[in-house]
Design brief:
It holds the Pfam family HTH_1. With 306 residues, the protein is of the alpha/beta class. It is 44% helix and 19% strand. The protein is globular and about 55 Å long.
C-alpha cells in the first residue's frame, strides 16, 4: 500500500502551534484562514490516526503525540528548506555569501536580531543559516561547511577559534499543577538528578550543560527526548513532566504563569554562548562583522540578569 504524503503547509501549521502556542497565531503566520487551518489539521489527524490537538473553549494546544509529530515535522521542513537552498545555489547565483551554523536556542532567540543589524551593514551578502545542535555546528565548522558557528556547549572542539558572544542560564520548569510547583523550599540537586525529565537530544548545548552539572549523580532514563526547546516546552505545558531549558526559551511563559520555575539549591546552570570558526585566528570579512554584532547586542529585555 502506497503511503500518501502530508503536504508541507499542514506541517508548517503544526510547527507554528508548537512555536506560537495557538492554532490562530499559526494560521496567521502562514496567511491561512483559521477554518481552513482547522480542516487541514483534522485531515492530518485522520491520516496519521493520532490526536494532535487538545481542543477546548480556551483554544487549542498540542497533545503529547502532537508535540512529537511537530518535532519531526520541524526536521522535515528544515530538510525542505535545505533542498530549496541547494536548488537556488545550482541556479548559479554569484553574489557574496555567508554560511552560518547556529544551535537551536541561539538561532531561535538571538540570531534574527543579529542578522537584522548585519543586513544594514551588508545588504548584498546572501546569508545561509543552518540550525543544528551545538555538536553538529562545531563539526560542520571544522568541515568547512559554515564560515562561523554559534554554540551553547561548555566544550569547544579542538581546532576551532572561539569568542564569547553572551551568556544565559538554564532553569528547571514544570507545569503549575506539578508537585514541585508547591514546594516551599528549593529543590535539591539530588532530587533533580533522580527525576525523569523531558530533555533535548544528546549533542545539544542545553543537554550537555545539564549532563555536566549532574555528572556526579545517578540519573534515570529521560521521559522524552526532543530536538527543539519549543518541543520540550510544549511537553511541559502538556503536563508530560519537568524539564531544564534556557531562560531564553522560558522567561515569557514563566512571567505569564503558564510555566513555573523551580529553584534548585547549590546548582549553577549559567552557560556561555560562543562563536566558533576555523583559521585564521582573527575572523574578518562579513563573518567577523556578524560576530562583532553579536558581541555588541544585548540579550532580550525579558531575560533576567543573574
Amino acid at each position: 500500500m502506497t503511503q500518501e504524503w502530508p503536504d508541507l503547509t499542514v506541517l508548517e501549521l503544526l510547527v507554528g502551534i508548537d512555536d506560537l502556542g495557538s492554532l490562530g497565531a499559526s494560521a496567521r503566520r502562514i496567511g491561512m484562514a483559521q477554518p481552513n487551518a482547522t480542516r487541514r489539521l483534522r485531515g492530518l489527524e485522520t491520516r496519521l490516526g493520532l490526536p494532535l490537538l487538545d481542543r477546548n473553549p480556551r483554544g487549542s494546544r498540542l497533545t503529547p503525540q502532537g508535540t512529537v509529530i511537530a518535532h519531526w515535522a520541524r526536521e522535515l521542513l528544515a530538510d525542505a528548506e535545505r533542498l530549496l537552498d541547494a536548488a537556488s545555489a545550482l541556479r548559479g547565483e554569484r553574489e557574496s555569501e555567508l554560511g552560518i551554523g547556529a544551535s537551536m536556542t541561539v538561532a531561535e532567540h538571538l540570531v534574527p536580531s543579529w542578522l537584522g543589524a548585519f543586513r544594514e551593514q551588508h545588504p548584498d551578502v546572501r546569508v545561509h543559516l543552518r540550525v543544528q545542535n551545538s555538536t553538529e555546528v562545531a563539526a560542520a565548522v571544522l568541515a568547512g561547511e559554515h564560515d562561523v558557528g554559534f554554540i551553547e556547549s561548555p566544550h569547544v572542539a579542538k581546532g576551532l577559534h572561539t569568542t564569547v558572544v553572551g551568556q544565559d542560564r538554564l532553569t528547571v520548569i514544570v507545569h503549575p499543577d506539578h508537585r514541585w510547583a508547591r514546594l516551599r523550599r528549593p529543590l535539591t540537586v539530588t532530587e533533580l538528578a533522580a527525576a525523569p525529565l523531558v530533555v533535548r537530544e544528546a549533542g545539544s548545548g542545553t543537554r550537555t550543560t545539564l549532563d555536566v552539572a549532574l555528572a556526579d549523580f545517578p540519573r534515570p532514563a529521560p521521559l522524552l527526548e526532543l530536538g527543539s526547546s519549543a518541543a520540550v516546552r510544549t511537553s511541559v505545558l502538556a503536563g508530560v513532566g519537568p524539564a531544564v531549558l534556557s531562560t531564553l526559551a522560558t522567561a515569557p511563559w514563566i512571567a505569564s504563569g503558564v510555566l513555573h520555575e523551580v529553584q534548585v539549591q547549590d546548582l549553577d546552570l549559567r552557560r556561555t554562548l560562543r562563536a566558533v570558526w576555523r583559521s585564521p585566528r582573527t575572523l574578518g570579512g562579513p563573518a567577523g562583522d556578524l560576530v562583532n554584532q553579536a558581541r555588541r547586542s544585548r540579550l532580550p529585555q525579558y531575560l533576567p540578569e543573574h
